[in-house]
Fold:
Amino acid sequence: MGDMVKTQDSESGTAFVWPVRVYYEDTDSGGVVYYANYLKFLERARTEWLRGLGFEQTELLRDYNVIFVVRRVEIDYLRPALFNDALVVTAQVHQSGRSWIELDQHVERGGEVLVKARVKIVCVNGQAFKPVGIPPVIKQKMENQS
Structure:
């Protein structure tokens, strides 16, 4: 798991999909994914989404002096994921502004949505951590993907 990147059509366009396997370390004593670990799964999918667009986070800092930081997360836990489950995590641009992107993300098992999240990330200067405009080349690729 984790070495395959694909996209899938959804109701509102094309979503990026990243596979994740649930390991023992991801679970609580009952074998259920600990709620905070879903944030890690969502983060991995966003990182791989950017990578799939051709942008490594280290290169964003080096070449554009920007990083993306999480500003807000809204999350609904609908069903539990369990130890050893094969999951997919999706990422799809919901809307964007000059310096921010809002993504809809799902964690799914066999087509069943377990977790729904809306995550707002902001493009900030790599030293001052103040919001800056998303570099045009990055914004264009993001908008072409959505």
Notes: The chain is about 25% helix and 40% strand. The first helix runs from residue 37 to 52.
